[in-house]
């Protein structure tokens, strides 16, 4: 049922009478958390405003496939206002948030002030360089579509420049790819680059052998996928090595520039294409709110997802450091962000009716990471899979959760065709990489 | 049959013995003309080098659909080296050409010199501003994928800014779209924008009514589609007006800035989104070659497509001003470029065998332009169509000529779904338009 104005059975009507106006909920950020919060308020007699500086919701788990030319941006991104089109109590604004005035309860954007009674902050995280921000130019990270098309252009351009290079040492440098960070994104990127070089583009060049490309995954810790059980981490490493990825463990990167990287042990890797998947830093929400944050910039929230003393403000998803009602640390993954968004909506509904909502509890459905086109690792606690079966589960799960029928259908068609033909559909070098 | 080294029956073997090396053909530009030339040499005992500053061949007739969010870039673009992957006598280089040394017969790129025995120049054209280059920033034209995503971002951002605007006059300015130029690109763009506003996004906004958007097509001449028969021009105008496009004829644009445009008659149109489809200027090939060009920068070539006195050089496609062997002026369309590329290949093959090829004759298969999702105009001289039948022909023709099975399949799926659901799949505002 859609909310209609003044419907007496609508949740929030009592609060409306008390406040003298329809309660205003502002949601900043339309990732998994923000969208879930908006959808959770679909039957509420409130005015919801969703503010995002982009016009699209991004299915981030598949972003590495855009970065490695397997999918087009539009296949994993959808306009926010399209997703929320039928929810008549929502207004979507594409604006950049500059700050939050907790005292007077408004969000300051570049162009306007948006007053709120309840505020949901779901602004996510970006990659971080551990204080070495100058590395960003050399080693882009992967969070937005612009990041993904940039990385795609760098990977494809490296092969182009290798084909054109006159000097053998230069050619080697162009054919060496370094991925920093052994978490899911790093593992997925390294696997996809190795596969691109060895399978997809292998016949397209005349002067170079793309399959001779060197792909190095550099992880400072002693295992890849550290949040996985040790056995699956080992399996993931084995699958990566089968694809031809060199896995370098136990040494951090100490230098990163146009020549490549240096590792803590003194080793140098000459490379023209270094990608960053090592660190994450929350958005500036803690600064906007003037509340304490942890080292990764995440706002400390209580078990109702409020920053202490601000019951009308919810901080959710990657922006928040959360311990749930069972004392578990909540990981920075899409399902957790969704659940927090749903919790925020429930808590707001309860507040509007003068009730109190329960505390937030995280349901862990498992953990998945893919390595190339035939292998993945999956941890559902009772069941642990690796190899092809895990890869199938990974595909089904990701297709299932993709927003919107159209995307699901087209992504499936593309995957199926790419699988059969070993092809990559979106091998485009665009924008500033056009020569 | 693929060329194999030294095969005695291969065309060009005699010339190879005479020259002491395998003849080298350099093709600059991998548009319709350049690709056709390369393919025409597939059985020749020559070394072909295709040089392009981009890594992709673009199906330009559908570019306006990327600019209006109906298709993704990868659906109408394909890597050049992928297209030519199986033609073993071709090397593809992604390099920017800086000049041509006719004396010593080499092409100078940013990084290298590429020697040639035969040269095919197929570098196309860009939009031109009739000496008002400062208009380019305000009114982008549509030639590359970067242009198309830029225009897409401008169109979609205008609606976003209208939704956020506080002031009614500003809102009107954001909701006014001006397309300058009544040729096929201008007609297609204006029709697609009107349709986007009136059909696709109409339910996605809360504060504005997208269907109130004003789309003005400004043409300095007295008809739209001037290369079409008068009856079809009139039909096209009628279909545009049915879609809600204001067609302004007989007045040129005299001012173009961030406020909008002014017309020769003194009328002002306030608009935040002006698109340019009015003029075309050939690439710098005439300057590289030091040969005469017409006002649009096109190289004057003889009926063998050589600049006078340079039998080893062919200038084809939009870069050339051509009168064919029957005395007809050859239009700047994709089929003409293809035919010229095929002719250049035949002439090179003949030259290698010491024969002379016939002169170039243009076969005119007809002329098509589409207006929105149900109408088009088609001129096959004997048969003239307008409305839905022309639109069907337009769709079949364009699908048929799209390079590669995959693209054809996916574009068809997207079109079919978009037709049924009145949806646009690629409504993304990316890169510098992210706020």
Automatic annotation (TrEMBL), chains A, B:
Recorded family membership: Belongs to the NADH dehydrogenase family.
FAD/NAD(P)-binding domain location: 24-341
Name recorded for this polypeptide: NADH:ubiquinone reductase (non-electrogenic)
EC numbers for this chain: 1.6.5.9
UniProt keywords, alphabetically: FAD, Flavoprotein, NAD, Oxidoreductase, Transit peptide
Catalyses which reaction(s): a quinone + NADH + H(+) = a quinol + NAD(+)
Pfam families from the UniProt entry: NDH2_C (PF22366), Pyr_redox_2 (PF07992)
Gene3D superfamilies documented for this protein: 3.50.50.100
Domain External alternative NADH-ubiquinone oxidoreductase-like C-terminal: 366-416
InterPro entries assigned: FAD/NAD-bd_sf, FAD/NAD-binding_dom, NDH-2, NDH2-like_C
Keyword Transit peptide in record: yes
Protein's UniProt keywords contain Nucleotide-binding: no
Highest taxon, organism lineage: Bacteria
